[in-house]
Every structure is written in structure tokens, then in C-alpha cells.
Sequence to fold (582 residues):
Amino acid sequence: MSNSALYEIQNLKCRYDENFTLDIPSLTIERGKSYGFVGPNGSGKSTLLRIFAFLDEPDEGRVRFHQGDFSSERALAKKELSKSKAVTMLLQEPYLLKRSVFENIAYGLRVRGIRKHLRARVNESLGMVGLDPGMFSHRKWSELSGGEAQRVALAARLILKPMVLILDEPTASVDRLNAQLIKKIIKVVRKQYLTTLLIASHDLVWLHEVCDEILKMHEGRIMGSGEENFVTGPWFSELDGLWSTLLTDGQRIRALPPPGEELPLRKNAIALLDPTSIIITTERPDHISAQNILFGRLVHMYTFEHSERVKLDIQVSDMSLTCSITRKAASSLGLLPGLRVWVVFKASSLQWQ
Amino acid sequence: MDYIAEGFVTALKLLLRGDPETYSAVFTTLRVSSLSIIASLGMGIPLGFSLGYYSFPGKRQIRAVVDTLLALPTVVVGLFVYALITRRGPLGSLGLLFTIPGIAVAQTILVLPIVIALTATAVSHLDVRFKRTVLTLGAGRRRTAITALYESRYGVLAAGVAAYGRAIGEVGVSMMIGGNIKWHTRTITTAIALETGKGQFAMGIALGLVLLLLAFVINWVLQIMRRRA
Fold:
């Protein structure tokens, strides 16, 4: 275990949603970094975050935290509790205790036996989330709007100056202004408290702005980091030996089969497609060796700070493909959202999971 | 019909003039019901909390028994306690029969299921996010349990109100265990029963109004407490 590793997961398995199992052979979370977890509903993001927060225990495997050990054989003993004090999580739908805003925010400090400068610290946390202490401190939990309640819940975590802050869909039920505010807060806690962040979200653009690393999840597994596209089955064998899957509009994606694998066993396998391995053209290319030439529509274009690349979301049939091209290429192609484009990639570009 | 209107006038007169017999019954009622409510809350809140908060084998069966005891008839409790504390009963030597503590013991048995059942309901109906929230804020097991009880305080308060209402208004236990002895164990309810038997409806109505007034004052105070909590 390197010095910078905060969590180290090995052979973790945890059942959730009755049908799915979180299955993570190996994952390291490094101290001070910010991680984003993306994936559809039911992909296991929340379960994984709850394991990180020591709320759920894995069925198998172990999670090493800091120096300690948190494994399936050992229940949450007293020793583990001190560990859980270093980690705090904001639930997807925050819950406030039935007491004043002040008491809600001070609760975590009281639990830790801290009585000093309570008011000053509560005020500071309220200020961080943009609420006026004079106006809100004495309000009851029932006298807040949804957005205010979420900010109070966040303030109750910030006051702890946590080593790890876990946020489950923090922007799911807030307006854009609040999403901006949370982004700002994340930057502040990383700088001031050197907090490690673990964030699950559907909002990829927002996530890219606050995270160092994005981990994609699908059906309980981490499917690589970054922007890879998932191509799901069912796969069919073609006469030339390639595998193919049909999109709803009749277009096909063709892939080089994984070596030595029988199709019946891997009918529902998932292939990853790197966004940088996709070529975009505005006219149908002829005489090209690539097996996949798909017709689609450019839906979104994004640019990021400190990056020379442009991210494109292209709707191909019912599938959304993420592509990454240089700014120069984007401008020479004259790309604009709404434009009809051709998406080209090799059969060998699909990587099997 | 005149005796009904007369009842209201008599009630006012009794209260304003400070009729000693009426006030004796009022104070006896307050003493008995206060004793029984303190005892039943003291036992019922921890028991009800455990029943609602923790999971253990047989929990549902115990819950069914407690819910059944909500329908416990006062005369059955009276009979049972009478049999225990009568001179020749197993607890006869304590000399509880026809005393205020005797009535309080029986009333405690009567209202204990109410406190347990309503407290358990309040605690078990806590939001599912509650436990996760306090755990993420660093609370240990004991702290979580204490916070859970505090979070369900309105439900526990309601349990107390319901139990007090039952204690203050019951007549079976007070009559059987207390014996309706004037200046000693006569409560408002036993006095009403007696006055009705004597055909003194006005007096009965007056006492009934006093009882309702008492209940109103107590609930009003609790209402203020609730708003502050």
C-alpha cells in the first residue's frame, strides 16, 4: 500500500437490489483526490459509496482504510467507529434532525465531544453554504425549503472538516445556482481541509469540473475510468467471424471477438470504446478499412479547462456515443450541435470487459 | 331538562366557592393519575423504545400482546389487582387496598400498554434515512439510540397524553381498588358514579365538567411544551 492510498479495495462483493452484485476486484482511492462515479440507476454507485462511508458492509472481500481494516468478517466494532468519524456522507435525499438549523449543524461536533467555539464554527459552515447565520441559525428543520435543507445538511458535514466527503447525487435535486455553489464548496474543502472526495452523479459535465478521475459503473462493476463508451449485446456471430450487435434503427456495430471465447457464454458481454479512437466525418467515407461506419447526429459539444480536446455526444440510433477530438479538428469540420455526422471506428477498437 | 343547565351553574359555583368536597375529589384524581402516569412513563418509554427500535426474535408476538392489552377492561385490571392486594392475597401485607397508591398501581397496569405501544410505533416510524444520517455524522450506537428517542419525542408525548387521558377518566379501577371513600379515595369519576346513582344529575354534570376542564388544562400545557420542543 503506497502512502497516498486512502482506501484499498480487494475482491469486494456486495449484493444489492436483489439481482445485482457489486463486484470490484481491485480499486485504490488516493488521498486528497476527487473521484466521480457515473453510471445508470442501479449500477451500484450508491452501494459503493455507502461501503466507503462504512454504512454498509461488503459480503465478501475487504476495504482497507488508512491503516485500519474493514472486512466482512469483522462487524462495525468500536475500533471502526473512530474511522467512520473521519468519513462523512451526504445522502441523496438529505435528512435533517427534528431540531433547529444550529443544532443540526452542531450535531456532528457534539458527537465528537467538541464544545468549544461551537457557534463560530456553525456560523462559518452556514457561511460556506451561502446561508446567513443570523437568519437561519434559529430556524426549525420544518421551516426550510428543499434547497435550504440540502445546504444545511451539507453544512453539517463541512463543519467536521472531514478527511473524506462522500456526496451521493448532490446536484440531482438542486437548481443550477446550487450546483454552482456545491462546485465552489468542493474546491474550497479540497484546498482548505485537503479532503478526499467521492461523488456519484449523473451530471457528467458538472462531474468533470470537480473531479480528477471519473469511474464509470455498470451493473455493479467499474468499467474503466474516463469517458469510455459501453456497447452492450446481445451479440451475434457473423459469417466472417466478427461479432455484431443490432441497433434499433437497423445499423450494426461490428467487433473483433475476444480470443478463445464462445459466443453463447458471452452473448451479453459489454465492450468498451475509447472516445479518442472514433473518427468523425461530415460526409460518408468511401474506401475505408474500418468495419464500423455509423450515421448519427451531434447532440452536445463540450470543452474543458486546460484541455485541447472537445468532447462530443453523438446520438447513433438509440445509443449515445461520446467522442473526443481536437479543437482544431472540430473547427475544420465546422461541427455544430444538430449536425448529421458519420462515426467511424475499427472492429478492433472495441475492448471486451 | 333543567337539571342539565343547572349542572353548568352548579359546576361554576362549586369551583368558584372552593367547595371542599369537590376539591378533595379533584386533588385525589390528580394525585392518583400523576403517580400512575409517572410510573407508566418510567417503565413504558424504555420498554416501548426497545420494542420499536431493536430487532429481536419474538418482537412481533410481543407487539401483538401489547396491542391486545390496549383493550384491557378497567374492571378486569381492578379484579386482578384486588385479588393480589386484598388482605388474604399474596401482596395483602402491603396494605394497598382502598389507598391512593393502590389505585395508582392498578392504573399503571392499565395505561402501561398505551405508553409501550404508542412509543414503539413512534420510534419504529422514524424516517429510514435517520439512522444513516446520524451514522454519517459520526454517532455511535448509544448516541444513535438516544437521538432516535429524541427524534420521536412528539410521538412519545402523544403516548403520555393518551395514557393520562385514560388514567384520569377511568372509573372501574378507582371504584374497585379505591372504594370511593369520601375525603380519602373518592376521585371525580367515582363521585360522578355516586351522584348519578343518587339521582343528583346536576352534581354529576358539574363534576364531569370539572374533569373535562382539568383534561383541557393539562393538554394545553403539553401543547405549549410541544411547540417549544
Summary: Chain A touches chain B at residues 50, 53-55, 78, 81, 84-85, 87-91, 93-95, 97-98, 107-108, 111-112, 153, 156-157, 160, 166 (CB under 8 Å). The mean pLDDT of chain A is 84.
